[in-house]
Amino acid sequence: MKNYNSPTVREYLEQKKELKQKRNQTILQMRQEGYSLQAIGDKFNCSREWIRLILQKEFKVTGTVKFISEEEVKKNEYTAKDISELTGHSVFILGVMTRKGHFPEPTRKVTEKSVHLGIDRWFWEKIIIEKYIKIKIKYLKIQLQNAINQRLAPPCPYSFNHKKVQELYKLLSSLDTDFWKGNLVYKSLNNLEVMKEFNGLIKPVKYIPYDYSKYVNRKSRGEYHKEGLYTAYETEKITKISRTSMYRYRNLGFLKEGTHFITGDHYFYRTMYYPEKMKQAMIDAGYDFLQAARIIEAKALSKKGKN
Q1: Same domain, yes or no, for 208 and 156?
Q2: Can you give the pTM of this predicted structure?
């Protein structure tokens, strides 16, 4: 019978035990660092199940060890979560955009610790993202400005105080302050152009800001009233002259701009009138209140007869 207590055998068993403990500690450390069971098994030339049993038996470790981006990120880097907060895009959408080429590629991927290549293991250098955001803001300004100007343009312009125009204008104004953070997702119509400029494939687009001061500083209706000016609807109520008649006399040249009315970009580009001056000018030009009343009465009777 062999003597297992001989010094040579004892030393061998102790050495084997020490190597086993060292191996198991390495397995635990790798698992804590985020390596998959399969990756650890490949290192030791064994199955993932064998690795799982060692972790469970020796260290009571079950389940998975989470990869924590905040613990892996470097000082000069952003995580996907950081970029999500900056841009307003969800982490999922950032992943989709990156894979489509609509967003800069990460400068570092922690792929050696796991076969899992999720966006939580991607990191971007801050200088890269800051360059992208600068270009993105420029294109977003152009997009918002075009959207506003289209709504303010004839023939059917919105009022500058219209809810939709104000939403666009407030977002455009916020892009020059820190309030842009989280608001860079507006329709995202220009992602390809942004990336082309980011990658130096096209000449940088120049943004020329539009001056909206004439809208921002526009006088209120009450301020116009102090100057004796009223909208066509208000003038109709004051003078008892229909807007149709006002338009006809204006087109015939009996009402002069600057004397009887003014035009401008106030209230949907409507004309504003000096009621008393306009009324007198129309009377001087032959406007007959009695005849106008008869015409209105006849139209009312005709409409009533049809019904």
Answers
A1: yes
A2: 0.59
